[in-house]
Every structure is written in structure tokens, then in C-alpha cells.
Design brief:
Mean pLDDT: 88
Order of helices and strands: HHHEEHEHEHEEEHEEEEHEHEEH
Distance between the termini: 46 Å
Low-confidence stretches: none
Largest sheet: 5 strands, mixed
Helix content: 25-40%
Length: 291
């Protein structure tokens, strides 16, 4: 029975992560150990839980039947561990975190370091990258992300906002007919950001105008890359004011349609719904919520 419980928990993680290797990274186990436990579970009960191929891993009928119960078992165990952790005055463990690179030096990063100082027995690993990471597959406990949360498998909590404005370099504006009304943006080149939708809204009082960029030849995967491309005179983009305030003050960038505003974008903390470090995540969220 004990062997089954461990194997069932590992099976649930494989189903969630989508592969044995991804589950191994999340559980900090080797792929061979993960595979061994699942195979032993299948052998003991004379079933196949996964359809295996070189390209994909999918649940069999028996696997689907077991998965709901496996998830409930893991969640119940996590609730019990949380109850123990909540009464501990000296939490310990490890957290792997990721956040956008442009938030380096932000209030959110400072909150993470304050958490690390407060709890010296918690090891913190922080990856700063504008690439959207698959938390489960890559073994991360929590991410800080921007915009709307679309992945229903992740829990989320709003922890802040940031302001943006539409800008371009003077050299680019000198090469085109400068936009006077939102419709004029149809003739502008846009520097596109891989992590955010191309379409956005401009607001002026009760008025709203939806912008769908029609021209672009530059696509980047980071806020820093977008700023660099816009500074180089390659087009228009809506950028965080915190990132470009010095550029605006120095005249390296100019606001476009300044009477129209770009809606504030939310900052979220997101984490997998089944995470065995949920008590530590709850502690960290209290720090992040104060930013």
C-alpha cells in the first residue's frame, strides 16, 4: 500500500506534466526513477496507465479513471502538510521562482529578497526571463506574470499593476506622417512582443479605440528587446513607463497620442494547483501582495 501511494502521487505528476522527464524535473527525481514507479504500479495492478510513443504520452482509460482519485489524494496530503507548516515558526524548504526580466529591481523582486531574509532556512532560486515558462514541466513553484491568466491549471493572485504608454523614437516619427488620431496608427510599423497580444485598446475618457497592428517586421521576446528596437527607430510599441521614463525625459522616445491612454496591465503571481510546497507559496504571497 505504501508503495502504491508513492507511485500514485508520481503518476499524477506525470499526467499533469505531460512526460516522465518533466515530472522528474518537478519532483527532483531522475526520469528512470519516475518511470520505474509508474511501471511498478501498472505491473502490480495489471493495467496500462499511459499510451507511450516516441512523440507523445496520453492516458489510457484506466489512467483516466485513476487520475481524479490520484489528484484528490495528493491534494488531501498537501492540506495536511500545510496544517503542520502553518504552526511552524521556522519554515524550511526550497522554492524555484521565475519572473519577467524587466522586473529586475522592482518592488516584486525586493519582496522576494525580503522573504529570503526573513526565512533563512528557505532556499530561493529566481530565474529572470521574459520567456513564458511551463511551470510544471520545468519544475518551477511560482511565476510572476503579466496580463490575463489563461491557463486554468494554474492558480493566480493579483499582486500589482504597471503603467504603459505608446511611444516611438523621433527618428521613426520623422520618417512617417505622425499619428494625430488613433486611425493613423494603421500606417505605423509596430515592434511586436511575443508574450503579449498584438491587439490593444486606447482610452480617452469614455471613448475606446481598438488597435490591431497591421504592419510589423520586428518581433521580440522581451520588454528589453522591444525598448531597444523602438529606440533604434524600427516602430511603435506600448512600453512600461518604469522602463522608459529616462528615455522620455531625455527625448530619446516620444509619446504618441498622449491624450489617449493604454489600460493598466495587471501583475499576477501564478502557481500550479497541485504543489507540495504550497505552505511556502502562501508565505511568499503575503510578501508579494504588499508590493
Amino acid at each position: 500500500m505504501i508503495d502504491d501511494l508513492r507511485a500514485i502521487a508520481i503518476f499524477a505528476k506525470v499526467a499533469e506534466a505531460g512526460s516522465f522527464s518533466a515530472a522528474g524535473r518537478a519532483l527532483q527525481l531522475s526520469t528512470s526513477v519516475v518511470s520505474h514507479h509508474v511501471k511498478a504500479l501498472e505491473t502490480r495492478h495489471s493495467v496500462s496507465l499511459f499510451h507511450r510513443s516516441t512523440r507523445a504520452l496520453s492516458l489510457t482509460g484506466e489512467g483516466k479513471n485513476l487520475l481524479d482519485s490520484a489528484r484528490r489524494m495528493v491534494e488531501a496530503a498537501e492540506e495536511g502538510l500545510d496544517a503542520i507548516a502553518d504552526v511552524s515558526a521556522d519554515p524550511a524548504g526550497a522554492l524555484r521562482l521565475t519572473m519577467p526580466a524587466f522586473l529586475t529591481g522592482s518592488a516584486q523582486e525586493s519582496a522576494i529578497w525580503e522573504f529570503a531574509r526573513r526565512y533563512p532556512n528557505v532556499a530561493v532560486t529566481l530565474y529572470s526571463s521574459d520567456r513564458q515558462i511551463n511551470l510544471v514541466a520545468e519544475g518551477f513553484d511560482l511565476a510572476i506574470r503579466l496580463g490575463m491568466m489563461s491557463d486554468s491549471a494554474l492558480k493566480s493572485r493579483k499582486i500589482g499593476t504597471f503603467e504603459r504608454c505608446l511611444v516611438a523614437a523621433p527618428s521613426y516619427l520623422a520618417s512617417i506622417k505622425r499619428p494625430v488620431v488613433p486611425n493613423d496608427l494603421a500606417g505605423c510599423d509596430f515592434v511586436l512582443l511575443e508574450m503579449l497580444p498584438d491587439k490593444f485598446v486606447l482610452r480617452r475618457g469614455s471613448e475606446e479605440f481598438t488597435v490591431q497592428p497591421e504592419q510589423s517586421r520586428v518581433l521580440v521576446n522581451s520588454i528589453g528587446g522591444a525598448r531597444s528596437a523602438v529606440l533604434a527607430g524600427l516602430g511603435v510599441q506600448k512600453l512600461p513607463i518604469s522602463e522608459i521614463s529616462d528615455d522620455l525625459a531625455a527625448g530619446r522616445l516620444v509619446r504618441i497620442l498622449p491624450e489617449w491612454s493604454v489600460p493598466t496591465l495587471n501583475i499576477y503571481a501564478v502557481w500550479p494547483s497541485s504543489n507540495h510546497r504550497s505552505s511556502l507559496i502562501k508565505l511568499l504571497l503575503d510578501f508579494l501582495a504588499g508590493t
